[in-house]
Amino acid sequence: MNLRICFSKFGRLRFLGHLDVMRFFQRAITRGGVPVAYSAGFHPHMIMSFAQPLALSVTSDGEYFDIECGVDSVDPDDILARLRGAMCDGLDVRSVTILPEREPNTKKQTGMSQIAGAMYLLTSDAENGAKFAEAVRKLAEASSVLVEKEGKSGVRDVDIRKGIHALAILNEGGTLEYLSNDGMFDCPPDLTGGFGRERSAHAPERPCGSVTILAAVDAGSENNISVELLTEALRKCGELPDGRFLNAHRMELFGRREDHMVSLALMR
Amino acid sequence: MAEKLALSDDILLSVEKPARYTGGEINMAIKDPDKVDVRFAMCFPDVYEVGMSHLGIQILYDMFNKREDTYCERVYSPWTDLDAIMREKHIPLFTLETQSPVKDFDFLGITLQYEMCYTNVLQVLDLSGIPLHAADRTEEDPIVIGGGPCSYNPEPIAEFFDFFYIGEGETVYGDIIELYKDNKRKGGTRADFLRGVSHIQGMYVPSLYEVTYKVDGTIASFRPKYDDVPAKILKQVVTDLDACVYPEKQLVPFLKVVQDRVVLELQRGCTRGCRFCQAGMIYRPNRERSVPYLRRLAKNLLDTSGQDEMNLSSLSSSDFSGLREFVYAMIDECKDRHVSLSLPSLRIDSFAVDVMKQVQDVNKSSITFAPEAGTQRMRNVINKGLTDEDILDGASKAFAAGWNKVKLYFMLGLPTENDDDVRGIAQLGESIAEAYYRLPKESRRGRVNITISTSYFIAKPFTPFQWMPMINKETFLVRQRLLKATVGEQLNQKSLVYHWHDAETSELEGIFARGDRKLAAAIEEAYRDGCIYDAWTEHFKYDVWKRILDKHGITVEFYNLRERPKDEILPWDHIDIGVSRDFLYREYEKAQQEIVTPNCMVKCSGCGAVQFGCGICKRPGNKEVTNA
Fold it and tell me: What is the complex's ipTM, to 2 decimals?
């Protein structure tokens, strides 16, 4: 039996690397007494697979990993409680769902291989708020934006505009004003609720004068638009500094079902 | 984000492994600093991954934080990348827990695990904004305490510390904290507090002692400045290891650290009495924990940490009386939990081979021996009770069980060492290889792989060799070459690999180990000239050190190469480890006569540790000798 676990990463632990997060969860699973399956061999390891790594300093409410359980039936609420008891400030488990049994002779679908999209909140610093808003509006209007992307065969220019499916600015009233939206994602009107939780529970603070936007983009192995690429695209559209000027928060990861993005927690 | 980090995101993103500086680990103590009386910053002056691997800090951290009136936080040396940024931007050194400046604390406790960390001690003080010299500190500065093995001869760094805690930390820190609170309530000064501290057994306040030198540089006198300050400082000892504090919940780092496992301390001290070994003397008497206590502890530690590896720690595991019972119980416990078990310092015999078969992968692991010397003569000098037969017999048993990798550890430059002793190292390697090839071909797995490593013998205080000369760097190189050539002459030389350590770090370590207060100025200048992380080969600046030592008139001839006469006042003579100077001197003489001293389990040799009234000295059947 396979379980999919959704967790948040925030606070001081946003500087934890991907491997360290994996090690943390291995230990949390042990501490919580979660019945996980182990591989064979002299040094058995837990059978688990993590979805997309998160860049250092980015917070998230939509991180995922799958584990294989060594028992025939589990109560997801019990697993959730066990894992929550083993967390520490900066990492929290948000949901545990049971994945359907795999059809015989089909390839194993891990969280990683299902990833097709991601939704981010990007918050500028106070100084660059106005310029940032201007750049976002230009990006929304543009039909193509070329940025340098490092691939297997070196650095090349790619057009990432089509991979940006929705852009919105967060208004003072807390609603989202969409500047562009191609309908791939179910776009929320504000940040309350959604995916069974508040969308920005652990997002960075929004200092006075800053501007916050929502961006829904392609992710995963096929066409990954990272926060870095997105920032680069914004720089192309406006007069933004070369150094860091924004904090990023991942709201959710998505899989693709036909022509629509579906939260990874709901993918089967 | 509610929590404020001491470093900005920009800085954290520009340094290697930012999680070194952000804390928040599992089982970290969380308290409100405003609601405690005493804030204690506990420091290991090396990088996070090294410092977090140290059990002693875990023990003291847990002990302090069990007190409601105290909040103990951790601080480690910033790595060189952050070090440069903190200097440039004037960012004060901070603790991991509350990310607050070290300078705001009541105490800064620094553990001194090896001599090569001394410049890092100055780095920590300097980055914290605390005056390097204890004499320059004001009522606003933390009280700086040193502890750990190097505090048994703290003289080279004495002027940088307010006091040293000599001995085991579990015993009287409570008294020190009460004294501090009491002094504060009464409006007492820093000096009042330190004077009071000097009355607690084991506490050495260097500023309360005066030292004078002879023209030849040796000590003429060393005495307390005041009548109420003790002339001798007797170390602190835990008499019952089952009754003292032990962290039931160990901190679990996020980063992969050097010692990335749960550590269970089986016993403290060692009964063997190897004459080069400082740990074997300063931790006397040998004291064991009971098996039921250890089993309960192991279960708790594994439950609360979730670690997948456990290490049974001890200076000589094989001598632990409950070892069989305990290890077999642990093998079962660990198998159920998918935890791997490691047992360093296990003497290879039938039992060890049986244990190894159950806990190690024969394809990936090797068997380890530390004969320390290549000939029986030399091993008698150093009182290492391990014979060629023990080694060959153990190795044969392991070979029969499928192992084909062997690691051998030796020292070069031991007192009285001659060329035959050096050649003996290669010959011992050859004998082990031959033992392997005597196995029938069908039970061998390819070629045997024997690795010989040598380090540079360093004479340490509180060992019988404290009076002995070390060899110079040039002789060391000659002996390395001789050994390398002899390895090349062996029949099975293709199965032997020889590794050696560089001599330059060891030379300095020798100077620090038996150094006196005259070294402080040189250490300070080396630090000012950019020396930090001297324990790290890539950061060790031999040229800078050489220049500064020369300038200060500090020579290897004086500190390392000369034989010290019996009546010379040694810089550490005012520290009393409970093992008498007479015993050490008898051992020094017996070493020269190549006479072996039996270990404490066989016969008491009257070292003096019986005064602590515990451990091996009081084990039923052991007859104590007060003066042999």
Answer: 0.92
